[in-house]
Write a structure and sequence with these properties.
Blueprint (H helix, E strand, L loop, with lengths): L8 H6 L1 H4 L5 H10 L1 E5 L5 H11 L3 E5 L24 H12 L4 E5 L8 H6 L3 E4 L4 H14 L3 E7 L2 E7 L8 H4 L12 H4 L4 H19 L8 E6 L4 E6 L38 E2 L1 H9 L5 E4 L15 E2 L18 E4 L4 H12 L5 E4 L2 H6 L4
Parallel strand pairs: 1-2, 1-4, 2-3, 4-5, 9-13, 10-11, 10-12, 12-13
Antiparallel strand pairs: 5-6, 6-7, 7-8
The protein binds zinc ion (ZN).
Length: 377
């Protein structure tokens, strides 16, 4: 371990509120000063994360972003302001971060993160904070981190739902491919403009990513290895889903076939993502048709018991999402399992979880009970 850098008098004053925190202190602050993070993207997730990491005194921050600031970014990308519309996101980010903390060393990489430059870029930093918005880049940051044994702090958002975890197979956790083995079907994801996001949501998720990054740098607490933290803003709830390392994972599994950061997933063209879109769905109307036809369906309601007052789907059995992992035995692995919640957010998480847990024919009821109630029945 190299000698930690000293703190100046100005820095000691600046970080006074850290120095009195158990687990941080002068030693921890010096660790932060010695640490570096590569941030992929300075958008919705990267904005709050970069601001907090800079304010916290992380010694060196690398920023990757080839884009310019668009006015439609300002609703959530709080690094950037009105006077920077049409100008470089990196220059905008640098100006703001230098204002927040001039002690931070900034590396500006005005490039796309590609299989050609990924290993070189990632190798220069201790931690990668993935703030991107598309699948190929996410696979790429995961794969580069895997080969270089660096932790990858993952965050994703969609409308009112967000997810956070840390992928670090070298610390015995799963990787991103253990959760999502390959790219979803092409054309099945709407663009971000179509998908939409409530602006404060990336603020919540990006801040959580900053927290996990700082914990890794300080070596305090438990990183969420094998745990996917899911935030449902509308239900005001945080839930944790277990992620398992997949022995069949093509990257970190027992007989890996991916040997390079240049592969099918990382070289695919980037389209904006919808985290849940790799999930099979059925519309409420189609479900009603099948129920009315007398089909014997296995339907699971993953809402909380008190939500049944909002309506129920005939034959659905209540297994609240938080209890799903303990009640897996109640769900047949060999037949179609239709899952619904209130609006489709929690049920899509449940479907993802079930598919990973060995229920391959789990299907999401799009729009949940809200869509069901809207049917003319
Ligand atoms: Zn894996």
């Amino acid at each position: 371990m190299p000698e930690l850098p000293e703190l100046s008098t100005e820095e000691i004053r600046r970080y006074a509120r850290h120095l009195s925190v158990p687990g941080v202190g002068v030693e921890g602050q010096r660790k932060l000063k010695a640490s570096s993070v590569l941030m992929i993207g300075t958008g919705g997730l990267g904005s709050p994360a970069a601001l907090y990491l800079a304010a916290a005194g992380v010694g060196r921050i690398g920023l990757i972003d080839p884009d310019t600031v668009d006015r439609s970014n300002l609703q959530r990308q709080i690094l950037h302001g009105e006077s920077w519309v049409g100008k470089s996101k990196l220059e905008s980010a640098a100006a703001r971060i230098r204002e927040v903390n001039p002690h931070v060393v900034l590396d500006l990489h005005p490039v796309r993160f590609t299989p050609e430059n990924a290993l070189d870029l990632v190798s220069r930093y201790d931690v990668v904070l993935d703030g991107c918005d598309n699948f190929p880049t996410r696979f790429l940051s995961n794969d580069a981190c895997f080969f270089l044994k660096k932790p990858c702090v993952y965050g994703s958002i969609f409308r009112f739902d967000g997810q956070v975890t840390v992928f670090a197979p070298h610390l015995d956790g799963p990787c991103y491919r253990c959760m999502l083995p390959g790219l979803p079907a092409p054309g099945s994801a709407p663009s971000c403009e179509e998908a939409g996001v409530l602006g404060v949501l990336p603020g919540v998720i990006g801040s959580l990513q900053a927290m996990e990054t700082i914990k890794l740098m300080l070596g305090i607490g438990e990183p969420p290895l094998g745990k996917l933290l899911c935030y449902d803003a509308l239900a005001t709830s945080f839930r944790t889903l277990r992620l398992r390392r997949d022995p069949a994972c093509r990257l970190c599994g027992d007989a890996p076939s991916i040997r390079s950061v240049s592969n099918t997933e990382t070289t695919a063209s980037a389209s904006c993502e919808l985290p849940d879109q790799d999930i099979a769905e059925i519309s409420a109307a189609d479900l009603a048709t099948r129920i009315d036809a007398g089909e014997d369906l296995f339907i699971v309601d993953v809402r909380q018991p008190e939500e049944e007052a909002e309506g129920t789907i005939p034959g659905a059995r209540l297994i609240p999402l938080a209890t799903l992992s303990q009640r897996l035995a109640e769900i047949p692995a060999d037949r179609e399992v239709l899952v619904h919640c209130r609006s489709g957010g929690r049920s899509s998480r449940a479907v993802k979880f079930l598919r990973e847990a060995g229920v391959p024919r789990a299907v999401n009821v799009a729009g949940g009970i809200n869509a069901w109630n809207a049917l003319d029945r």
